[in-house]
Amino acid sequence: MNDTKPKVFSGIQPSGSKTLGNYSGGFRQYAQTQETHEAFFCIVDLHSISVDYDPGELRRATLDLAAMFFATGLDAERATVFCQSHVTAHAEAAWLLSSVTSYGQLSRMTQFKDKSEGRDVVSAALFTYPVLMAGDILLYQTDLVPIGDDQRQHLELSRDIAERFNHRFGETFRVPEGKFPEIGGRIMDLQEPQNKMSTTLSSEQGAVYIVDSPDAIMKKFKSAVTDSEREVRYDPQEKPGVSNLLEIMSVATGEPIEALERRFENAGYGDFKVAVGESVVALLNPIRERYEALRGDERELQRLLAVGAEKARRASAPTLEMMYERMGFARSDAGPFFGAARPKGL
Ligand code: AQP
Asked: Do 141 and 131 touch, CB atoms closer than 8 A?
């Protein structure tokens, strides 16, 4: 592995069908970075059990997500694509890091508040999952984390945890930076444009799934909520529905928002919504086709994940060992990674 390239890490949960929002804030950014960075992309299956879930569905969704990573352009040779539960260092790191994470800070996480609202049972895992996320990132001495806007607060927490650990136990982690898309960092629900498009919280009509058929995509855009003003103008405060559609089209075509505003200056909302839908079909159709081909071969997906897990184990072991050492654990030399080389510069 080339230790001179900066490192990038990001993860996505294998839960539900992945949305256009996940594409925009997640997948879209990943493939670009594998050329310039040492890249780690993780199916964060341990995160998925923080809310009510179906075990059979978790297995299926894990392979779905593996296929989606490769369908959106990741290459198992160039990037390390793996499953979190295959690399035990992640669960260990989360426990060690929880000792430098405050209860008060975890209580302020807005995603915890949103996801726990109205539930009878709120798991401890939902509360502590940002610590696991910090471990995911810090284990790889990550420089850059490409994510959507909704993960800003969790990334900030990861940075705080890294700094606190470094201060308490000596320089151990690189403090990572987030990479947020300028456009499309928060794709909104098509029916409720004041809320983000979400895997778990959006309605079927409000979310566009990457694997939706062209027909389904067109229907969803035709019924997208706009406003009564009939002017295609970007103004997220006053015109959340129209602004979201402009952002989506900009993500799908690569055209700047101002150019789209000019193009649809004299158009009605009906024509505009059809054009946005068509641009999304053109974007997602080839991805869906590649996805279906890859998803058909489960053995190959399992093989690729095994290759990724081996690379991820080797890359994370030195940092985990250093954490134990710095925290004062009496390590025996029996472990497979004991004495593993330290990451450069630490
Ligand atoms: N609406 C969004 N716009 C832009 N980026 C988004 N992301 C999620 N929603 C949007 C980004 O997708 C990546 C993976 O997110 P995740 O692991 O949190 O996956 P998820 O939980 O399945 O995604 P959701 O849709 O956010 O589900 P809920 O709402 O149930 O938690 C991250 O980079 C995220 O920022």
From this structure: no
Q: In this structure, which amino acid lies at residue 287?
A: I
Of ligand 1's listed atoms, the one at least distance from the Cα of 151 is 35
CA 175 to chain CA centroid, Å, is: 19
* Cα first-last separation, the chain: 17
Place of tokens 């430098």: 100
Starting at the earlier edge strand, list the strands of the sheet with 177-179: 80-83, 38-43, 7-12, 144-146, 177-179
User: pTM, whole model, 2 decimals?
Assistant: 0.91
| Ligand 1 pocket, CB under 6 A | 12-13, 15-16, 19, 21-22, 24-26, 147-148, 150-151, 185-187, 196-201
Q: Which atom of ligand 1 is nearest to the CA of 202?
A: 29
Q: Which residues contact 156 (CB under 8 A, 6 or more apart)?
A: none
Could you list the beta-strand ranges (E) of the chain.
Answer: 7-12, 38-43, 80-83, 144-146, 177-179
Residue-wise pLDDT tens digits, 199-235: 888 999 999 999 999 999 999 999 999 999 989 999 9
d(CA 303, CA 130): 29
The token pair that represents 213 in the structure block: 């058929």
Using the predicted structure, report yes or no on whether residue 257 has a pLDDT greater than 60.
Answer: yes
Yes or no: say if 28 and 72 are a contact pair by the CB < 8 Å rule: yes
Distances from the Cα of 86 to the Cα of 12, 68, 131, 291, 306, angstroms: 15, 18, 18, 23, 8
Domains annotated on the chain, with CATH? 7-179+298-326 (3.40.50.620), 214-295 (1.10.240.10)
